[in-house]
Amino acid sequence: MKQAIIGLLLVWLIAGCSVAAPSEPDPEPEEPFFGIKGTVVSEEGERVLIVSDTVRLGAAGDGQYDAAWFSGVKGEVEIGERVEMGYDGGVDQSYPAQAKGKLLRKLPDERPSGATLSRAEVVRQALRQTEAGMPAVVEVSYSKSERQWRIDLYNNGALDGSTLQVLVKDEPVR
Question: For strand 163-169 and strand 135-143, is the pairing parallel, antiparallel, or unpaired?
């Protein structure tokens, strides 16, 4: 019994004194993101309206897309572009929210193989064709065989949660 205890203590002592390989440094923690990742859907005076790319489910299971009017960034972004916009200071919690904005980054624009127009260009055209007050861009797809884009918009301003489908020919606007 005495030898077993001495053996366990010896193993414990040796294990405690062994040199461990240096560990990788912990990665830098990501800073929390306070803003909206979405599409610029409107301009009004010196501010732009950005509507989120993802739906936020309410308690009743109904969905709504975050939206905010951002001031101080007009000229940095264009309607149709996907961006990450941060809140720069306080936020008026109305819907849509209102705040001073800080452009964090423009997200890459997409142009499928064989397409003449980019995603941002066709979204801009689609938004001109609709009267939805606060549209969320749900899906943008391109048909190479039809040379046509389909843009699905969620009418955030409507109480019925209606969606709109806009078709845009893949040709430059004249």
Answer: unpaired
Helix (H), strand (E) at residue 81: none
- 8 A C-beta contact, residue 127 and residue 135: yes
Torsion of CA 132, 136, 142, 143, to 10 degrees: -60
**Among 102, 49, 55, 54, which Cα is nearest to 76's?**
102
- Look over the chain and give the mean of its residue pLDDT values, rounded to a whole number: 82
Residue spans of the chain under pLDDT 50? 18-21
Q: Which two tokens stand for residue 58?
A: 């309410």
The strands making up 135-143's β-sheet, listed across from edge to edge, are 135-143, 148-155, 163-169
Residues 70/101, Cβ–Cβ less than 8 Å: yes
The pTM score is: 0.76
E strands in 15-159: 35-44, 47-57, 63-71, 82-92, 97-106, 135-143, 148-155
